[in-house]
């Protein structure tokens, strides 16, 4: 294995403590979907131990998580057929109802289940309408097998603090749920910016992994994943020589080029532009030419480096993943969840 993703256990602890400091009297549903945002659920024990619930998207993720913990699991996408309901019950999941077609499946249960009801307050992706919600409560509240744990909704624009949709969603949510005994609305961005949205359960995702919820850099969070790969070749090119597929970069002076053993086959973004920084021996060095499947090339003319030295692609104080996301026209969430199976994941303190 060449590329390494080291997962910092102390950074995980620190980031969760930042979350809890922002919302000290709230229960925490830590979101571990997509294999803990690409960080591997089996390396998440500091989070698993210190959370009240664990959120995943679907049954397969719940199955994997259940093998390593007895904590309550919240199934965010719910179930779409009876067979999935049976699996969810066996895994002891709390199940989100977000669509009216789930009501007959849930209300026919033969075993006790804990459910969350998700309402649509303006994102228009998942969630019951106001009428559906009222119908759902009437249908389920007298069923002795069904226990309604919480009513939830999700912000569409929480990362944009001043977006008017935030307040309108919150107003809508409060109006619909004033009778509910437990409520949940806040994702990472709302946890850090909008205390009025915290209610009974907060649902942190991206901030646990030390990434800004606002696309900027939040220096009070610590990056959890550090992605690195070794230099496997060094050569000097002369004026007029090009580097990489498509010859998209040409030297205008003699340049020392390091070739590093990572590429889009490992999850380094193919759209990273010329000049995207790579950290080598504490110096930021610019990417040159196209990213290939297994390799990238970097201008190391102003750095001392040798074959075998490690290059950091993201996850250092001097090189945050948010910067790489900007240089490749995407978001950190996509980069993290895209790290490939060829990368060697290791746990660090
Ligand atoms: C993914 C997700 C979250 C976490 O979102 P972040 O922006 O990563 O904090 C919270 N709630 C729901 C329903 C989600 O799907």
Keywords:
6-stranded antiparallel barrel, alpha/beta, 349 residues, 8-stranded parallel beta sheet, binds pyridoxal-5'-phosphate
Concise synopsis of the structure shown:
Helices cover 27% and strands 25% of the residues.
Give the ligands present: pyridoxal-5'-phosphate
Into which percent range does the helicity of residues fall? 25-40%
The topology string of helices and strands comes to EHEHHEHEHEHEHEHEHEEEEEEEEEHHE
N-end to C-end Cα span = 21 Å
Question: Which blocks of ≥5 consecutive residues have pLDDT under 50?
Answer: none
- Number of helical runs? 11
Gyration radius, to the nearest Å? 23 Å
Strand order of the largest sheet: 8-7-6-5-4-3-2-9
How much of the polypeptide forms β-strand, as a percent range?
15-25%
Structural class: alpha/beta
**Biggest pleated-sheet summary:** 8 strands, parallel
In round numbers, the mean pLDDT is: 96
Silhouette = elongated
**What is the number of strand segments?**
18
Structure characterization notes:
It is a single chain. The chain is 27% helix and 25% strand. The protein is an alpha/beta fold and 349 residues long. The strands form three sheets. It has an eight-stranded parallel beta sheet. It is elongated and about 80 Å long. It starts with a strand and ends with a strand.
């Amino acid at each position: 294995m060449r590329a390494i993703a080291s997962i910092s256990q102390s950074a995980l602890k620190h980031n969760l403590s930042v979350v809890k400091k922002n919302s000290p009297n709230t229960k925490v549903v830590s979101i571990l979907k997509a294999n803990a945002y690409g960080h591997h659920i089996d390396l998440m024990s500091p989070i698993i131990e210190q959370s009240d619930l664990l959120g995943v998207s679907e049954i397969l993720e719940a199955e994997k998580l259940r093998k390593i913990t007895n904590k309550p699991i919240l199934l965010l996408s719910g179930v779409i057929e009876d067979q999935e309901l049976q699996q969810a019950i066996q895994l002891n999941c709390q199940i989100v109802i977000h669509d009216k077609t789930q009501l007959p499946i849930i209300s026919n249960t033969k075993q006790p289940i804990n459910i969350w009801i998700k309402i649509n307050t303006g994102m228009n992706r998942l969630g019951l309408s106001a009428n559906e919600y009222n119908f759902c409560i009437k249908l389920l509240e007298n069923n002795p097998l069904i226990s309604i744990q919480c009513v939830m909704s999700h912000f569409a624009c929480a990362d944009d603090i001043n977006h008017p949709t935030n307040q309108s969603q919150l107003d809508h949510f409060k109006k619909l749920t004033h009778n509910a005994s437990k409520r949940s609305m806040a994702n990472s961005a709302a946890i850090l910016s909008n205390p009025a949205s915290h209610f009974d359960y907060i649902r942190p995702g991206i901030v646990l992994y030390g990434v800004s919820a606002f696309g900027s850099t939040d220096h009070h969070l610590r990056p959890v994943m550090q992605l690195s790969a070794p230099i496997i070749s060094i050569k000097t090119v002369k004026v007029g020589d090009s580097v990489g597929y498509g010859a998209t970069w040409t030297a205008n002076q003699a340049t020392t080029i390091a070739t590093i053993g990572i590429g889009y086959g490992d999850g380094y973004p193919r759209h990273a532009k010329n000049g995207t920084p790579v950290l080598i021996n504490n110096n930021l060095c610019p990417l040159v030419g196209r990213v290939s499947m297994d390799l990238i090339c970097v201008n190391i003319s102003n750095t001392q480096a040798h074959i075998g030295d490690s290059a950091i692609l993201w996850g250092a104080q001097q090189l945050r993943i948010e910067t790489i996301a900007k240089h490749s026209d995407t978001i950190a969430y996509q980069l993290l969840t895209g790290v490939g199976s060829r990368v060697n994941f290791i746990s660090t303190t």
